[in-house]
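Priority: medium. Attachment 1 of 2:
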């Protein structure tokens, strides 16, 4: 059938049919999703390619992509990739999705360190149940951000900017609700950690900064209210238990009499 891969290999005819372009050098976007592809073939001849979706295939070798200097968005999710080394040549890459592959360690990501424009990386997609062996470690995100500190989003979560601050606040709210129970002792004063930013990152007079301060204040108010509600709930539970104990004693006394 026209436009399909040939024995799992990308062909010129396939690329021309999918893009509607006669010359491979003129192609800007290619979607070859769920095509049973295990060989990227002549994809490297599409030197003007900016967006490529080759997800849900059987690709293990990404070497043919190394010539795509104009590529900005690359989706290779749900493949069989364990090495990303050829991607270090993609100097304009901004977004990379490799969820659902065989990336086994953070060392496999070090080849991406010199990609100054890379701001979005996805290794794990819980919604689609796509992950990598590297994601089995609970600390993998911190390690990845240590290697690629310029990332703005990791696994779909904001890690830089006002959006990331609010996301952290919501995460911390979950932690407080789960772990700051008065039954474990006095209610602990909880300080929400601020991200490590350069001194000039925030403009004190900026709208974003004011909005972020207000957002933090609102979250702190919610935390305080949660602590109050938790205390009241515990007090009500204690009173109910005491009443039950007293009623039990009264019944026992009556039976004795």
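Attachment 2 of 2:
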């Amino acid at each position: 059938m026209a436009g399909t891969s040939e024995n799992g290999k990308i062909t010129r005819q396939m690329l021309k049919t999918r893009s509607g372009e006669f010359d491979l050098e003129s192609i800007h976007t290619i979607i070859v999703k769920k095509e049973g592809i295990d060989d990227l073939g002549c994809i490297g001849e599409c030197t003007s390619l900016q967006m490529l979706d080759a997800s849900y295939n059987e690709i293990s070798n990404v070497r043919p992509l190394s010539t795509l200097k104009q590529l900005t968005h690359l989706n290779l999710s749900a493949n069989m990739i364990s090495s990303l080394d050829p991607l270090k040549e993609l100097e304009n890459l901004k977004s990379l999705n490799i969820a659902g592959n065989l990336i086994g360690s953070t060392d496999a990501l070090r080849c991406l360190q010199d990609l100054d424009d890379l701001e979005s990386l996805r290794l794990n997609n819980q919604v689609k149940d796509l992950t990598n062996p590297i994601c089995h470690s609970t600390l993998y995100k911190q390690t990845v951000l240590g290697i690629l500190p310029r990332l703005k989003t990791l696994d779909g979560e904001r890690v830089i900017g006002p959006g990331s601050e609010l996301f952290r606040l919501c995460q911390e709210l979950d932690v407080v609700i789960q772990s700051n129970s008065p039954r474990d002792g006095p209610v602990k004063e909880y300080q929400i950690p601020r991200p490590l930013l350069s001194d000039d990152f925030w403009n004190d007079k900026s709208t974003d900064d004011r909005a972020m301060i207000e957002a933090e204040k609102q979250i702190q108010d919610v935390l305080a209210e949660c602590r109050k509600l938790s205390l009241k709930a515990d007090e009500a539970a204690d009173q109910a238990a005491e009443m039950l104990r007293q009623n039990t004693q009264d019944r026992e006394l009556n039976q004795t009499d």
